């Protein structure tokens, strides 16, 4: 039996029983690193229409170039701190700078994006009856005193530090999500994302994996911030996108940790990058920034049980995929 694709449905017919309407999905921050990979995956489904809104602060049109002009795709320059009127069925709300150097650059804007931006997207979800997923962060656990972090841990966050615009901003965003859920019955999903890496990361955004790979390719020393024994757990972006879609499509509000439990010290990460990419490169210890969490590793029991999800790509296998993309963008070919 063959299935024929229904024509795009004009809005008055969206609820007609004779038409199976496409699913309209809004992705805020869709021109960014994780957002653009999410868009790629959503666009694979012919029943999805994807609308991206982005202010291009840290994202770029380049990340979406293969979809520009596609009949099921639309890209709008828009800042989520302003109200937005669109008719959609689902909202993936990612808009927010994620790298410390960018979110600290204009902290007031960062907190506005997290608070007013999330409020606007919730107001939109309420008006149109859409389900909304927030990409929260492992930073809500602050400098955690519980290890590994479970979703029930309330965190250890400095409310007045240089990271607070992001950490506390995301904590308020989570609160808003639950208040709209309880007060207005909005369908919500919250993902607590742990450090994610992969192709299309901003080359100079200061995050550790992108820094080390760019440094290795430029023959510059890998800058390990002291003491270097602090840990992070790195999730490859395709695993992350898979987890986000499962969360959106499942029945659980979350919050649910989505991350890879493989935990590494920054010295171990530098050594791995050195081994895989540039065995001669030097490793240099440099000064750290304030409030740097000393350890971070997700407990993903909930994601496994409730979403049937666990990451597949090991750091050792993911780094070379990112190296390839960075080589192309930096114009550094592999020496044979
Ligand atoms: P990114 O910086 O690549 O993407 C964020 C996107 O949001 C960019 O395209 C940027 O231009 C856009 N944006 C920022 N402020 C905006 C505003 N006011 N209005 C409209 N668009 C705006 O970052 P990413 O790594 O892709 O992160 C995406 C989401 O995932 C963020 O919400 C981030 O907090 C969350 N997250 C990411 C990580 C990670 O390791 N990458 C970890 C935890 C949480
Ligand atoms: N909002 C939006 N798009 C919509 C509906 C609402 O951007 O389609 C914004 C609206 O401007 C408001 C926020 O979402 O600032 C919260 O909306 P809500 O209706 O919950 O609250 P109210 O407008 O009553 O303060
Ligand atoms: N880091 C590092 N060298 C760098 C950049 C970061 O050693 O060039 C360390 C940083 O001190 C932190 C860890 O890497 O302990 C992760 O930092 P990143 O900014 O990537 O993410 P986040 O702090 O948000 O987890």
Automatic annotation (TrEMBL):
Pathway the protein takes part in: Nucleotide-sugar biosynthesis; UDP-alpha-D-xylose biosynthesis; UDP-alpha-D-xylose from UDP-alpha-D-glucuronate: step 1/1
Catalyses which reaction(s): UDP-alpha-D-glucuronate + H(+) = UDP-alpha-D-xylose + CO2
Compartment(s) of residence: Cytoplasm
Record InterPro entries: NAD(P)-bd_dom, NAD(P)-bd_dom_sf, UXS-like
EC number: 4.1.1.35
GO biological process: D-xylose metabolic process
Keywords: Cytoplasm, Decarboxylase, Lyase, NAD
GO cellular component: cytoplasm
Required cofactor names: NAD(+)
Enzyme type, top EC level: lyase
NAD(P)-binding domain residues: 26-320
GO molecular function: NAD+ binding; UDP-glucuronate decarboxylase activity
Family in the record: Belongs to the NAD(P)-dependent epimerase/dehydratase family. UDP-glucuronic acid decarboxylase subfamily.
Protein name in the entry: UDP-glucuronate decarboxylase
Organism whose genome encodes this protein: Anisodus acutangulus
């Amino acid at each position: 039996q063959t299935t024929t694709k229904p024509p795009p449905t004009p809005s008055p017919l969206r609820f007609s029983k004779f038409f199976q309407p496409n699913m309209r999905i809004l992705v805020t921050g869709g021109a960014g690193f994780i957002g653009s990979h999410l868009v790629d995956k959503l666009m694979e489904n012919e029943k999805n229409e994807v609308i991206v809104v982005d202010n291009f602060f840290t994202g770029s049109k380049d990340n979406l170039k293969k979809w520009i002009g596609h009949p099921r795709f639309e890209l709008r320059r828009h800042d989520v701190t302003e109200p937005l009127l669109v008719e959609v069925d689902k909202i993936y709300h990612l808009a927010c700078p994620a790298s410390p150097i960018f979110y600290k650059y204009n902290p007031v804007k960062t907190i506005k994006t997290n608070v007013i931006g999330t409020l606007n997207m919730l107001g939109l979800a309420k008006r149109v009856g859409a389900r909304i997923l927030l990409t929260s962060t492992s930073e809500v656990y602050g400098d955690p005193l519980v290890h590994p972090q479970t979703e029930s841990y309330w965190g250890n966050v400095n409310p007045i530090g240089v990271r607070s615009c992001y950490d506390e901003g995301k904590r308020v965003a989570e609160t808003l999500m639950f208040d709209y859920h309880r007060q207005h019955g909005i369908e919500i999903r919250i993902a607590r994302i742990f450090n994610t890496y992969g192709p299309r990361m901003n080359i100079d955004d200061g995050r550790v994996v992108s820094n080390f790979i760019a440094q290795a390719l430029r023959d510059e020393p890998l800058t390990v911030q002291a003491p270097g024994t602090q840990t992070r757990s790195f999730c490859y972006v395709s695993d992350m996108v898979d987890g986000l879609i499962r969360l959106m499509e499942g029945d659980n509000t979350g919050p649910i940790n989505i991350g890879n439990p493989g935990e590494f010290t920054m010295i171990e990460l530098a050594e791995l990058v050195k081994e895989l990419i540039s065995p001669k490169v030097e490793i240099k210890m440099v000064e750290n920034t304030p409030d740097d969490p000393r350890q971070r590793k997700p407990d993903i029991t909930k994601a496994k049980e409730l979403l049937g999800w666990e990451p597949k790509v090991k750091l050792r296998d993911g780094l070379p995929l990112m190296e390839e993309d960075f080589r192309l963008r930096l114009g550094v070919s592999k020496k044979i």
